[in-house]
DNA sequence: GCCGTTTTCGGCCCGACTGTTTTCAGTCG
């Protein structure tokens, strides 16, 4: 689809325009880019119907540019901007605390047009001589330039969330802290996060801030005030702590949870009613009367909206749904009755099947599917037909000792380059559950799609696990025809796996697309040790970001219901 | 460049923190 290509060009244009006088044009281009990224329909089709201007944020001028791209594969405006503006300047914008104004001054006064130029200017201590700058500004820019090299990466939620939870746990011990919560993209369960946001309410903010900056994990303090403090913790991640009073906790939680796009729409809704929404409260601008503030829910309700789960707050239709009271009732970790993809020490897992079962029972699971790797995955000690048969017998035997809990004998089978599975049908027919997975790295579009499709057509395959984003990021030009896969999966009654590990997973957008087509899902950990069963929360978080409800997920079913969905469960 | 239950012109989310200057501009989230 050309939607993403055009969105990318609009973002490039926005970056370049940012360096010029007008600060509103870039905003318009970004808004349009976002709209394009979210379209579920091909932009070509919309253009043919002459409905480009119906896209939010697209008016006459942008519609014309979209048409130009569709006809010529090019947008001349971008080229002219690129000729006019040095690309090194855009790079300068990525340095923290350097914005468009600073870039302009650096260029006009010092001739700086690249990171390298900036480095030289800093070496000569030229920056502090500029009007509006001083030694402190120069030093900060110097440090940020250094910092950018080492710390610019986004962290996976699985790493960031435990760090945040630890800090919250320690701060909660302070008796001056009334309420405390994780906010930001972590609260929205975004797969990767740029920084950690923590929100607290207190009657003694200074003490809370003081304790915070003296926490053993804190390495450096970026900014410190009574309501907002930013630090770097030793994992190389920025943590922002905000402290407000109790009356504002709901408004602040709403505000700091974001996303930015979601908040902008909310504030627009408030403005339409002559109200003002800030991190302190929702307020009538004329009478100054406070309409809501202590509770997040009250703010949404005052704006005519149902309360929206943080995972949905991306301005991708959740506000419209909340207005119409049509929000999904999202799946919760407690809805999960069992894990359908775990590895034991029979292949590359660390724990025995018995230990895995014990942990599953302790989690109140009703079933657990052991799905070790198959023989093609020799490097992880994959099971061949003989060992799998033996494992199935072992599992059947173990089941005799459980009440109200069932171990399922499954397999994670490799799909071979010719589309066949790497274990014989005879032995697979003995299992309860078959997950088909692709562990290839370099394939053309047609063949990856074809492999997944042929896996769906295989009679014994119940679940498809995905080619990872990792593959996609390693090969930028590689793409998979997901709509086709979703159609076939739906048709063949094959479920899609939402995986909790950060390596193998669908994006929220794709999950939502598949859900709308009526495809079923399972949420699994692919745990390689018993302690990893707890990672299911990340899979659930991802599912929630994809608007998934319990009814879309097979492993929310009781064992007897599950049995009816997977034909060969014994 | 977009957009309209005050508007086809004049807005465009709002507030904290920093460094500089002495009342504010720039940046960020």
Summarize the structure in words.
By secondary structure, the chain is α/β, with parallel strands linked by helices. It is built from 25 helices and 17 strands. The strands form four sheets. Strands 11-12-13-14-15-16-17 form a seven-stranded parallel sheet. The protein is globular and about 80 Å long. Residues 469-478 have low confidence and may be disordered. The structure holds one DNA strand of 29 nucleotides.
Concise summary:
The chain is an alpha/beta fold. It has 25 helices and 17 strands.
Radius of gyration: 27 Å
Chain-averaged pLDDT: 87
**What helical percentage do the residues reach?**
40-55%
| Topology, number of strands | 17
The CA-CA distance between the termini, in Å, is 44 Å
Could you give a short account of the major beta sheet? 7 strands, parallel
Identify the overall geometry.
globular
Low-confidence stretches: 469-478
For the biggest β-sheet, the strand order reads 11-12-13-14-15-16-17
Strand content: 15-25%
Global structural class: alpha/beta
What is the count of helical runs? 25
